Amino acid sequence: MKMRSMVVLTLLSTALVFAQESKEEDIKNPLAADPAAIAAGKRLFVEGCSGCHGTNAEGGRGPNLAKGDLIRDVPNRRLFASIKDGIKGTEMPLSRLPEENIWQMVTYLRDLTSPAFDSHLAGDPEAGSTLYYGKAGCVNCHMIRGRGGFLGPDLSNAGRSKTPPQLREAILDPNATIADGFRGVTVTLRDGKKIAGVAKDNTNYAIQILDGHGDLHRLLKQDLSEVVFRKKSVMPGDYKQRLSASEVDNLLAFLSRQSLRPAESKEISK
Amino acid sequence: MRRSLLCIAAMAGTLFGQAGYEKIRKGPTENWLTYAGDYSGQRHSPLKQITNANVATLVPKWVYHVDKSSHLEATPLVYDGIMYVSDSNQVHALDARTGRRIWLYKDEQAKRSDVNRGVAMLDDKVFFVTSDAHLVALHRKTGAVIWDKEYANGKQGNFATLAPLAVKDRILVGVSGGDSGNRGFIAAYAAATGEKLWQFYTIPAKGEPGSETWGEADVQWGGGATWLSGTFDPELNLIYWTTGNPWPDFYGGNRKGDNLYSASLVALDADTGKMKWYFQFTPHDTHDWDAQAWPVLMDMPFQGRQRKVVVHANRNGFFYVLDRVTGEFLRATPYVELNWAKGVDAKGRPIVLPDTDPTPDGRRVCPNVRGASNWMSPSFNPEKGLFYVSTLEACDVYSSSTKKGEPMKGYGGTGTAPSGDGKFYMRALDPKTGEKRWEYPMTGANAMWAGTVSTAGGVLFFGDDDGN
Predict the structure, then answer these.
(1) ipTM
(2) A125-176+235-256 sits in which CATH class?
(3) Number of H helices and number of E strands within chain B?
(4) Identical fold, A2-113 and A125-176+235-256
(5) How confident is residue A24, by pLDDT bands cut at 50, 70 and 90?
């Protein structure tokens, strides 16, 4: 366990160095965004990397690469080199594959960790919108540009801030990661009154709860007789059963289009 | 200002309604709803619990660290027990009683990172600007984005640092960037939708009145940035906003004339953005003396008659009193030692002394480039009738170059070098007479930028030059 932590830490610090160097002139990925290279890279990753990094790069003995924070700001030069030559001082080994295969893996990792907005997801965004505001009921808890409920994270910029795997996980396995400030809680006041919602913050002395009506309750623990946190996410855990695979794809496509900023900032008229 | 917020007063939690226009108009209570406390910009709290007798017993209640902040320059707003603090491209909502964070909004896509001076509030929304000039409306309970509007173009030299101003149903913004070339403006956006309602350029376009004061200069890069918030008179329906220096800062040979409406105060109709009057403090400025600190509104007797006035302590070293209905000049008095003008004429125009314009060899001029005061918040205590302003006594050697600078390359027509040591003072000025009533000299590194807040308890709060 200790060893694993050290590896993660080393990789993390390496990533920071990468980030600092990202302003250097980079080399071009000859296969960038090539769908065939993405597919080939994924196969190579599963064969050679999944033992440590997980089948979907979700991490294991090695760090989670799917989250994107270790990969996104790393220039091609360093990403390529760390796969080809390994990372000294860590368990990351070198690879004897030809350069083309290494570029295929780089291409796969780029695609995996790109914001959903930059991915070309297969689903139908319009059908996804209908689901979001209708049958799936997402709007009851999640806001997009001011429309929606209070108990889930704002999704106005979901396409920019999340990768496709993160969005998929959030829909199908909401208990895997509960966002900060969105853990469900019910408290009982000394007079017996109960308040339920999500805890924006919690300490030994105070708790701040946002309820489903959007009212914020700032409470001192000394005024409470009981605080009960939900073990599971407030988000329903049955979307895997409630939605078909294509409906999930449509929902993902809709969420991937949610961006506060356009692809290219438009010129402002004088 | 420090990188953390220190709260020294416990606040009770109560459930409020929305932070509506009428509440802002009433001025501060236990809430602080706009950057300068109220629309007049007096920055005076009516709270009396802290007095000269007990202020020494204050102790820290909580400290909140704004992660990775290098320059926290914001004035927090407080409403319904929640404190809203901004930094570069981010807003933090804190429980004012405990200092714990309720939500954090961060714009990770912003293209630059500059200081940020605060948020505006209106109804259920909190507004702030990103460094790359997006005006963003957030839900005040959750930090969820209601709308996000790019309002100025970075390719035209603009960026943003100010706290927006919420007036009636609209949000007013300005732009930074005048020291490297831009064209300043003030614009109003509908609070509900982000729709642009009007835009007023501080530098007139060719052919418009005032454009004849720019010689051959390209007005697109004339400067006149609007770095800070303005103030507002609801009865007159006028907005008062100060404007920045013309560009290039230190060489005026290519912009012959007064360079309207740079280094000025403009009064605009809040509904239309049309200019009702202007007053230029420093015509044809060549010392980077923006009109910086916001204009403070008050009513007072002047020469036997009650007047609605606006007062402003300018970087150029004069303390001004103007009629805020008409823009009529009433008085200007030096509040620091200055050597560039022997006074002002009957219209308020400076009587400039010879040999004070920057030259290639440099000329020693006081005040220095930071100005007699700058964006540090002034305040006014109506009970005492005193105006409090952070003041710098300092001189610089100002140099210039005839080289034609390229905009957005950091060129200001050359620059300045310190001439001797400077010293900061907190000064209390009497707007009725223009005289200094008292001063508090500061020791320190000569690097303070902290403002003031006055209280009905009789205590004036400010950060000093020694970091206290």
Answers:
(1) 0.87
(2) mainly alpha
(3) 1, 34
(4) yes
(5) low
